[in-house]
Design a protein that fits this description.
The protein is an alpha/beta fold. The chain contains 7 helices and 9 strands, in the order H-E-E-H-E-H-E-H-E-E-E-H-E-H-E-H. The strands form 2 sheets. It has a 7-stranded mixed sheet with strand order 1-8-7-2-5-3-4, sandwiched between helices.
Length: 229
């Protein structure tokens, strides 16, 4: 994975801090800025991860995600999705577990490294070991966080610039029981504040649905622009 990232121009990779040596049963809570985030974290700790359901149908990538033990969820549906996470965390906590660490993007969708969205509570309903981590793409001319463009434009933009420096910041680590799962909303707010403060960004009270409405607006503007040209 590191070689693949280098081939894409995502270098140098800089690690600040580090995860615990024993990653058994650890849930990694990470900001989500780009589709590249999963590759970055696979180069770091090779986790299983939580992803949108549509990824499972993507040729090649979907097979790799299933092989890695990915949990597929629907972003537009909240009911029943948290149980999938809870079940995996219970299995991860078992003494004889064979599951790798689990990567969760608690914002529930991508943001842009300049703001954050409130954390969802799905990964905070079951006692677990938790590690806060965030990824930052450092001042590239073409940012991997730009997603209101076609995928091929994004990929071409990243690969045709000289380099895209990446930083992976490991923040606080919480042993089993140190995150109060009896009040998941309070725990989510506290962890979100911790990460946003470390990143130096503001938490915006928006939802996935708000983001989709904004994208519809942008795409509508782009369509109108093409018609007038």
């Amino acid at each position: 994975t590191s070689g693949f990232l280098f081939g894409m121009g995502l270098w140098p990779m800089r690690r600040i801090g580090g995860p615990p040596k024993d990653l058994t049963g650890v849930t990694l809570l990470c900001n989500h800025a780009s589709y590249v985030d999963i590759l970055v974290m696979m180069a770091e700790v090779m986790p299983a991860f939580v992803s949108k359901q549509a990824l499972g149908d993507v040729l090649g990538v979907g097979f790799m995600a299933k092989f890695a033990g990915c949990i597929f969820v629907r972003q537009d549906v909240s009911k029943g999705q948290a149980q999938l996470l809870q079940q995996r965390q219970v299995e991860m906590a078992a003494p004889d577990t064979s599951w790798p660490p689990l990567l969760v993007f608690p914002e529930g969708t991508t943001t842009n490294n300049r703001f954050m969205m409130p954390f969802r509570t799905g990964a905070l309903l079951t006692p677990s070991r938790h590690q806060l981590v965030y990824i930052r793409y450092c001042n590239p001319a073409f940012s991997p966080t730009w997603e209101a463009v076609p995928f091929w434009v994004s990929l071409l933009g990243i690969m045709t610039q000289w380099r895209t420096p990446v930083e992976v910041h490991y923040l606080q680590y919480f042993e089993m029981g140190e995150v109060d799962v009896s009040d998941p909303k309070a725990a989510a707010a506290k962890l979100c504040e911790c990460m946003s403060t470390s990143m130096g960004v503001e938490v915006v009270p928006a939802t996935y649905q708000d983001k989709m409405e904004y994208f519809k607006f942008l795409l509508g503007r782009m369509g109108q622009l093409k018609k007038t040209q």
